[in-house]
Design brief:
Layout: E1 8-11, H1 15-26, E2 31-34, H2 52-55, E3 57-58, E4 63-64, E5 67-71, E6 76-80, H3 99-103, H4 113-128, E7 130-132, E8 146-148, H5 153-162
Parallel strand pairs: 1-2
Antiparallel strand pairs: 3-4, 5-6, 7-8
Bound molecules: flavin-adenine dinucleotide.
Residues 11-17, 34-37, 78-82, 85-86, 89-94 line the site of flavin-adenine dinucleotide (FAD).
Amino acid sequence: MTTHDHDWLVVGTGFGGSVSALRLAQKGYRVGMLECGRRFRDEDFANTTWEAAKYYWFPKFGMKGVFRTTLFKDIFVVSGSGVGGGSLGYANTLYRARPGFYRDPQIAGLADWERELAPHYDEAERMLGVVTYDEDAGRPPAQGVRGVHRPRRDVREDARRRLPR
Ligand SMILES: Cc1cc2nc3c(=O)[nH]c(=O)nc-3n(C[C@H](O)[C@H](O)[C@H](O)COP(=O)(O)OP(=O)(O)OC[C@H]3O[C@@H](n4cnc5c(N)ncnc54)[C@H](O)[C@@H]3O)c2cc1C
């Protein structure tokens, strides 16, 4: 019988891939992750966008930064690259969908999405360490602006303990 090193291979280590890999590993599967971008230490990030080789992802030209741009016929996509994917360079704002999203006729009749999604938002916010942005004290709070300083230490340490080396 063929043996394998992994039960699951997850392609991409961004927000989606990392959560998938974590949950599979927590269930006891042997999980491998494939990532085409590089691993970044704090000192590897570009300080300004002028440091193009560190900021943009154009590997053909030796540029292996976090910011990938992809041009299709009708659309231009900006996304992340590197271990961590979009989390390496995203804007740290974390919103819940507004009421209009749940009323969209394409999904509204299928379930009570606000109730269905609420526990998943709670868990994502817990894991990402979401806090309400309060730097503009004195001004009326922007509607639903939520952000993150850093993943909470206990969550990071818990993930580190559980993941296979
Ligand atoms: C500049 C910017 C700011 C943003 N700000 C916010 C924000 O404030 N709040 C918010 O909620 N969202 C924000 N987003 C959006 C958010 O980052 C994305 O929705 C999220 O990263 C998507 O997660 P993902 O797992 O689908 O993909 P990604 O996080 O992009 O991960 C995909 C990973 O797969 C890798 N990959 C791709 N192809 C291959 C391959 N063939 N082989 C191996 N690896 C591969 C990529 O290198 C990347 O690391 C922002 C995005 C950008 C670009």
